[in-house]
Amino acid sequence: MSERDDHWGDLLRRANRGDRRAYGHFLIEVTPVVRNIARARSADAPEDVEDIVQEALLALHDKRHTWREDVPVTPWIYAIVRYKAIDARRRRGMAHHDIADLAEVLADDSAGDIMASRDLSQLLGGIDDRSADIVRALGVTGESAGDVGAQMGMTEGAVRVAYHRALTRLRKLVGANEAQ
């Protein structure tokens, strides 16, 4: 996991156990990232950015108990912001957005890794939890197969095999969704 994800995960974990100071630090630290994602997702409606930020922060607060402590927190945050931005676009009657308009923002590391969380939770919901956790760890947060194996009680080779099998299942899911 990334250092930032570890830190945010620790803050949210402590916050979920009642540490108000940790929760305050968590909100202060994630807000600029939430704002960058909202700004990128609403490039054609900059007046919506702060509304999206507020809705996303409220959703993070309301749904913080749904975050699974054994998975990275960053993709969970990104998904919530993404869905709030989509909701705002729908309210404005602009549900479709060409990704080419976001090319400059996507190349900007400060805007957050928007594409990493794009439909991730929905897609990973189509495979078993262990495989989804392996894909998140190796494919999203960049952990090594050895580290993931140690965490999950698997050999490094078994993690790699499980990762490739999970990717194959995900490709089939994507293909099935595109055929519909």
TrEMBL record:
Record's keyword annotation contains Transcription: yes
Top-level division of the source organism's lineage: Bacteria
Residue ranges occupied by any RNA polymerase sigma-70 region domain in the UniProt entry: 32-93, 124-172
Cited InterPro entries: RNA_pol_sigma-70-like, RNA_pol_sigma-70_dom, RNA_pol_sigma70_r2, RNA_pol_sigma70_r4, RNA_pol_sigma_r2, RNA_pol_sigma_r3/r4-like, WH-like_DNA-bd_sf
Species for this entry: Pseudooceanicola sediminis
A molecular-function term among this protein's GO annotations: DNA binding
Classification via PANTHER family: ECF RNA POLYMERASE SIGMA FACTOR SIGD (PTHR43133:SF58), RNA POLYMERASE ECF-TYPE SIGMA FACTO (PTHR43133)
Upper lineage: Bacteria, Pseudomonadati, Pseudomonadota, Alphaproteobacteria, Rhodobacterales
Protein family per UniProt: Belongs to the sigma-70 factor family. ECF subfamily.
Name listed for the protein in its UniProt record: Sigma-70 family RNA polymerase sigma factor
Keyword set, alphabetical order: DNA-binding, Sigma factor, Transcription, Transcription regulation
Record's keyword annotation contains DNA-binding: yes
GO biological process, any: DNA-templated transcription initiation
